[in-house]
Design goal:
186 residues; alpha/beta; two-stranded parallel ribbon; 7 helices; 8 strands
Length: 186
Protein backbone atom coordinates (compact mmCIF):
# COMPACT_ATOMS: atom_id res chain seq x y z
CA UNK A 1 0.00 0.00 0.00
CA UNK A 2 2.86 2.35 0.68
CA UNK A 3 5.63 1.39 -1.75
CA UNK A 4 3.50 0.22 -4.69
CA UNK A 5 0.15 1.91 -4.09
CA UNK A 6 1.42 5.27 -2.81
CA UNK A 7 -1.64 5.70 -0.57
CA UNK A 8 -1.79 9.18 0.94
CA UNK A 9 -3.75 10.87 3.70
CA UNK A 10 -7.18 11.97 2.51
CA UNK A 11 -7.53 9.26 -0.13
CA UNK A 12 -10.21 6.59 -0.04
CA UNK A 13 -9.23 2.92 -0.08
CA UNK A 14 -11.61 0.02 -0.72
CA UNK A 15 -10.58 -3.38 0.57
CA UNK A 16 -12.24 -6.42 -1.01
CA UNK A 17 -12.65 -8.98 1.74
CA UNK A 18 -12.68 -8.43 5.46
CA UNK A 19 -11.41 -11.64 6.99
CA UNK A 20 -7.97 -12.45 5.67
CA UNK A 21 -4.67 -11.57 7.25
CA UNK A 22 -3.63 -9.30 4.37
CA UNK A 23 -6.94 -7.45 4.47
CA UNK A 24 -6.99 -6.99 8.24
CA UNK A 25 -3.50 -5.52 7.96
CA UNK A 26 -4.53 -3.39 4.97
CA UNK A 27 -7.35 -1.79 6.96
CA UNK A 28 -4.92 -0.76 9.68
CA UNK A 29 -2.20 0.46 7.31
CA UNK A 30 -4.68 2.55 5.31
CA UNK A 31 -6.01 4.13 8.51
CA UNK A 32 -2.47 4.74 9.77
CA UNK A 33 -1.75 6.59 6.50
CA UNK A 34 -4.85 8.78 7.01
CA UNK A 35 -7.09 7.21 4.37
CA UNK A 36 -10.83 6.66 4.54
CA UNK A 37 -11.46 2.90 4.41
CA UNK A 38 -14.36 1.08 2.78
CA UNK A 39 -14.48 -2.68 3.38
CA UNK A 40 -16.46 -5.12 1.26
CA UNK A 41 -17.08 -8.25 3.33
CA UNK A 42 -19.01 -11.49 3.16
CA UNK A 43 -21.04 -11.18 6.36
CA UNK A 44 -21.97 -8.81 9.18
CA UNK A 45 -19.74 -10.49 11.78
CA UNK A 46 -16.57 -9.99 9.72
CA UNK A 47 -17.62 -6.45 8.85
CA UNK A 48 -18.03 -5.57 12.53
CA UNK A 49 -14.54 -6.94 13.15
CA UNK A 50 -13.32 -4.74 10.28
CA UNK A 51 -15.02 -1.74 11.91
CA UNK A 52 -13.14 -2.50 15.14
CA UNK A 53 -9.88 -2.26 13.13
CA UNK A 54 -10.88 1.18 11.80
CA UNK A 55 -13.03 0.63 8.70
CA UNK A 56 -15.21 3.67 8.00
CA UNK A 57 -17.76 2.19 5.60
CA UNK A 58 -18.97 -1.41 5.57
CA UNK A 59 -20.55 -3.11 2.55
CA UNK A 60 -22.00 -6.59 2.91
CA UNK A 61 -21.56 -8.29 -0.47
CA UNK A 62 -24.09 -10.96 0.52
CA UNK A 63 -26.72 -8.19 0.45
CA UNK A 64 -25.24 -6.04 -2.35
CA UNK A 65 -24.97 -8.03 -5.57
CA UNK A 66 -23.18 -5.12 -7.27
CA UNK A 67 -21.01 -3.91 -4.42
CA UNK A 68 -19.09 -1.61 -6.79
CA UNK A 69 -22.24 0.51 -7.06
CA UNK A 70 -22.46 0.67 -3.26
CA UNK A 71 -18.80 1.82 -3.16
CA UNK A 72 -19.56 4.41 -5.85
CA UNK A 73 -22.50 5.76 -3.86
CA UNK A 74 -20.48 5.76 -0.60
CA UNK A 75 -17.97 8.08 -2.30
CA UNK A 76 -20.64 10.50 -3.52
CA UNK A 77 -20.27 9.07 -7.05
CA UNK A 78 -16.54 9.78 -7.28
CA UNK A 79 -15.12 6.29 -6.83
CA UNK A 80 -12.17 5.30 -4.68
CA UNK A 81 -8.52 6.14 -5.17
CA UNK A 82 -7.29 2.63 -4.42
CA UNK A 83 -8.75 -0.87 -4.29
CA UNK A 84 -6.88 -3.68 -2.52
CA UNK A 85 -8.07 -6.90 -4.17
CA UNK A 86 -6.56 -10.29 -3.42
CA UNK A 87 -9.49 -12.25 -4.84
CA UNK A 88 -8.75 -11.70 -8.54
CA UNK A 89 -12.12 -12.72 -9.94
CA UNK A 90 -13.53 -9.51 -8.42
CA UNK A 91 -11.34 -7.27 -10.63
CA UNK A 92 -14.26 -6.19 -12.86
CA UNK A 93 -16.15 -4.83 -9.85
CA UNK A 94 -12.96 -3.39 -8.34
CA UNK A 95 -12.23 -1.48 -11.55
CA UNK A 96 -15.78 -0.13 -11.62
CA UNK A 97 -15.34 1.12 -8.03
CA UNK A 98 -12.18 3.08 -8.89
CA UNK A 99 -12.22 6.74 -9.80
CA UNK A 100 -10.44 8.08 -12.86
CA UNK A 101 -6.71 7.62 -12.31
CA UNK A 102 -7.33 5.03 -9.60
CA UNK A 103 -5.00 2.22 -8.59
CA UNK A 104 -5.87 -1.45 -8.24
CA UNK A 105 -3.47 -3.27 -5.92
CA UNK A 106 -3.41 -7.02 -6.36
CA UNK A 107 -1.73 -9.16 -3.75
CA UNK A 108 -3.07 -12.58 -4.66
CA UNK A 109 -5.81 -14.52 -6.40
CA UNK A 110 -7.77 -16.53 -3.90
CA UNK A 111 -10.71 -17.15 -6.27
CA UNK A 112 -9.06 -18.01 -9.59
CA UNK A 113 -5.86 -17.20 -11.45
CA UNK A 114 -7.68 -16.45 -14.71
CA UNK A 115 -10.68 -14.26 -15.38
CA UNK A 116 -11.89 -11.75 -17.96
CA UNK A 117 -11.62 -8.00 -17.59
CA UNK A 118 -13.07 -5.22 -19.69
CA UNK A 119 -10.06 -3.29 -20.96
CA UNK A 120 -12.24 -0.22 -21.53
CA UNK A 121 -12.17 0.39 -17.76
CA UNK A 122 -8.37 0.44 -17.78
CA UNK A 123 -7.85 2.91 -20.61
CA UNK A 124 -11.13 4.81 -20.22
CA UNK A 125 -10.54 5.55 -16.54
CA UNK A 126 -6.71 5.75 -16.76
CA UNK A 127 -6.38 2.95 -14.20
CA UNK A 128 -3.16 1.39 -12.94
CA UNK A 129 -2.99 -2.26 -11.90
CA UNK A 130 -0.14 -2.89 -9.48
CA UNK A 131 0.99 -6.26 -8.22
CA UNK A 132 2.89 -7.01 -5.05
CA UNK A 133 3.88 -10.09 -3.12
CA UNK A 134 6.38 -9.26 -0.40
CA UNK A 135 8.12 -6.18 0.91
CA UNK A 136 11.78 -5.33 1.04
CA UNK A 137 13.70 -5.90 4.28
CA UNK A 138 13.59 -2.14 4.98
CA UNK A 139 9.81 -2.04 4.48
CA UNK A 140 9.40 -5.10 6.71
CA UNK A 141 11.40 -3.38 9.46
CA UNK A 142 9.29 -0.23 9.11
CA UNK A 143 6.07 -2.22 9.57
CA UNK A 144 7.48 -4.21 12.48
CA UNK A 145 8.52 -0.95 14.17
CA UNK A 146 4.86 0.16 13.90
CA UNK A 147 3.73 -3.17 15.39
CA UNK A 148 6.16 -2.88 18.32
CA UNK A 149 5.11 0.75 18.85
CA UNK A 150 1.48 -0.44 19.12
CA UNK A 151 0.33 1.48 16.03
CA UNK A 152 -0.53 -1.70 14.10
CA UNK A 153 -1.89 -4.90 15.66
CA UNK A 154 -1.36 -8.35 14.17
CA UNK A 155 -4.76 -10.02 13.84
CA UNK A 156 -4.58 -13.70 14.70
CA UNK A 157 -7.63 -15.87 14.15
CA UNK A 158 -6.58 -19.21 15.60
CA UNK A 159 -3.65 -21.54 16.16
CA UNK A 160 -3.70 -25.23 15.29
CA UNK A 161 -1.16 -27.91 16.24
CA UNK A 162 0.82 -28.98 13.18
CA UNK A 163 -0.90 -32.39 13.19
CA UNK A 164 -4.20 -30.50 12.56
CA UNK A 165 -2.92 -28.55 9.55
CA UNK A 166 -5.70 -30.00 7.39
CA UNK A 167 -8.34 -28.60 9.77
CA UNK A 168 -6.61 -25.21 9.65
CA UNK A 169 -6.68 -25.31 5.85
CA UNK A 170 -10.38 -26.25 5.91
CA UNK A 171 -11.12 -23.24 8.15
CA UNK A 172 -9.34 -21.01 5.65
CA UNK A 173 -11.11 -22.53 2.62
CA UNK A 174 -14.51 -22.11 4.28
CA UNK A 175 -13.73 -18.43 4.89
CA UNK A 176 -14.37 -18.74 8.62
CA UNK A 177 -11.25 -16.92 9.70
CA UNK A 178 -10.71 -13.28 10.57
CA UNK A 179 -6.98 -12.65 10.50
CA UNK A 180 -4.14 -15.13 10.22
CA UNK A 181 -4.36 -18.81 11.01
CA UNK A 182 -1.12 -20.12 12.47
CA UNK A 183 0.35 -23.57 13.07
CA UNK A 184 2.13 -24.50 16.29
CA UNK A 185 5.14 -26.61 15.29
CA UNK A 186 6.46 -27.22 18.80
Amino acid sequence: MIARGAVKAGETVAIVGAGGGVNSASIQVAKYLGARVIVVGSNSKKLEQARALGADVLIDRSKEEDWSKAVFLATEKRGVDVVVDNVGATFPLSMRALKKGGRLLTVGNSAAPRFEIDNRFIFGKHLSILGSTMSSIAEFREVMDLVFAGKLQPVLDSTFPLREAAAAQERLWRGENFGKITLDIS
